[in-house]
Design a protein that fits this description.
511 residues, alpha+beta, Helix Hairpins, Heat Shock Protein 90, 6-stranded antiparallel sheet, 5-stranded mixed sheet
């Protein structure tokens, strides 16, 4: 065997249906799991981020509430009760970004917009109406032309609405940032809220919530997915392989049996049919039906060849004998007998060729024909018939088909009727009640036994009690007539005649 060619029945490693199905299912599941995993991770991250935002909101509001509840004139940012910086880092700053207070051990915050600087000392109790200046209080307000206190109320500073005295505003924004607490840096979510203390000074509180729990949960889930995904894909591939193998096991049995049938040429064998009513079972049944039809076709072909050989043997042997006798004794040559045998051979050859064309699926022509005129013309040419033929022809009865083939059907039916009639043959053409065209050939002979009315249309079949081999044909006339009728979309049947004898009825669709 040459290199590059595989033996019949061999399958490449990834060319089998099992492999393709397993790979396809695994790929689809992998894509689905990756997409689902990404969606789960994003959802988990978003939910935990929202949870951190709520924690930051709560911490910011607690500090803002403490500031807003201070007694006017006694507001001091040094004694604010701020939460643990490691849990919730907090900054308190003026609206222009000056840092007033931050949590213990908090060294640095980024992401709030407030400079990471030390807290500037501020007066412990600014006077009512004085703004908090980050420790540089006690100014003389020399820049105030009207001498009023610089209390920030009602204006929008830095994009934040200023709440009324002793009230806290809404959370204005959430930002992501980082904070360094006691030398340890971490990621946080910060909430920002404005509050006006009892003295009328407006400050901004930045409070954070750690994102360590979020990052840990998302990371753990991602690692679990990365570790579990290959295992799950292996399970999917293995299960798909086993299920597909089990499902295709009957197909392999069908393939092996078909290979054995091909090798043995024994068309009587059949493939196994699974008990299940699924696609594979239907495939097996269809395969067996095909084998049955193929076996029948081969049997018909073999019988046809055998019968044709048998039919050809007699006239050929007779013709050879006559020629040999004529060669040895010219005065004894039976010339009429030799001519008769030659004519018989010619007719048989024509019949065999026509059957071969019909078996090959040759479609007849679709010419419009007046069937009554065709019958009248064909009967008028049969001048040597021993039994007279009576005609009953309807007018304007037309069909579509091949003139030559329909004439051949009529000729075969008339030949058959002439051989069996006692004294009369009748041909009628009419249109039936359902619109079909009916050609009937009736004789007054012995008729056809009911058990033989279908068998006489088989090839090379003769009813021995009706005629012998010498005066009859080869048994192909009625078989050819029925095949031609079916090719024209019609039927040919045999029935008893009303007055005795046989009636052959050809039914064709109208034009």
């Amino acid at each position: 065997m040459s290199a590059g060619k595989r033996p019949f029945g061999s399958v490449r490693p990834f060319g089998s249906v099992r492999a393709k199905t397993s790979l396809g299912a695994t790929a689809v599941v992998a894509v689905a799991l990756v997409a689902a995993g990404i969606a789960v991770l994003l959802s988990l991250r978003a939910n935990l981020t929202d949870q951190a935002d709520r924690e930051a909101d709560s911490a910011a509001r607690d500090v803002a509430l403490d500031i807003a509840s201070r007694v006017p004139g006694r507001t001091s940012y040094r004694d604010l009760e701020l939460p643990e910086a490691a849990d919730h880092p907090v900054q308190v700053a003026t609206q222009d970004g000056r840092l007033l207070a931050m949590g213990e051990d908090l060294e640095r915050i980024s992401g709030t917009g407030v400079p990471a600087a030390a807290v500037v000392p501020a007066p412990s109790a600014p006077q009512s109406g004085q703004p908090v200046d980050g420790g540089r209080g006690g100014g003389d307000n020399s820049g105030d032309d009207d001498g009023d206190d610089d209390v920030e109320t009602g204006d929008d500073h830095g994009g934040r609405a200023v709440p009324a005295v002793g009230e806290i505003g809404d959370i204005t924004e959430h930002t992501s940032g980082s904070a360094t607490v006691d030398g340890t840096a971490g990621d946080y979510r910060f909430a920002t809220i404005a509050v006006t203390d009892g003295s009328g000074a407006t400050v901004v509180v930045h409070a954070g919530a750690s994102l360590a729990a979020r990052d840990t949960a998302v990371g753990t889930a991602a690692v679990a997915m990365l570790l579990g995904l290959p295992v799950l894909l292996l399970v999917v591939a293995g299960v798909t392989w086993l299920v597909t193998r089990r499902a295709l096991r009957p197909v392999e049995g069908i393939r092996r049996e078909m290979a054995a049938i091909t090798a043995s040429e024994d068309l009587s064998r059949r493939v196994p049919e699974p008990a299940a009513h699924d696609e594979v079972a239907r495939l097996a049944r269809t395969t067996n039906e095909t084998l049955t039809a193929l076996e029948a076709a081969v049997d018909r072909q073999r019988r046809f060849v055998a019968d044709a050989s048998h039919e050809l043997r007699s006239p050929i042997a007779s013709l050879r004998t006559q020629l040999e006798v004529g060669d040895a004794h010219p005065e004894l040559l039976d010339m009429p007998g030799a001519v008769a045998d030659t004519v018989r051979l010619q007719r048989l050859a024509v019949d065999l060729l026509l059957l071969a064309r019909l078996d090959a699926g040759e479609r007849p022509g679709q010419n419009r024909l007046d069937l009554g005129a065709l019958v009248r013309e064909e009967v008028s040419q049969r001048t040597l018939d021993a039994v007279p033929v009576a005609l009953d022809l309807g007018q304007g009865v037309e069909v579509a088909g091949s003139r030559g083939q329909l004439a051949r059907v009529l000729g075969n039916l008339l030949d058959n009727a002439q051989r069996h009639a006692r004294g009369s043959v009748r041909v009628s053409v009419r249109r039936s009640a359902d619109g079909q065209v009916v050609l009937a050939v009736t004789d007054d002979g012995a008729g056809v036994p009911e058990a033989e009315r279908e068998r006489i249309f088989e090839r090379f079949v003769r009813l021995d009690e009706a005629r012998d081999r010498d005066d009859g044909g080869a048994g192909l006339g009625l078989a050819i007539a029925r095949d031609v009728a079916e090719r024209h979309g019609g039927t040919l049947t045999a029935a008893p005649a009303p007055a005795g004898g046989a009636r052959f009825e050809l039914r064709l669709p109208p034009t």
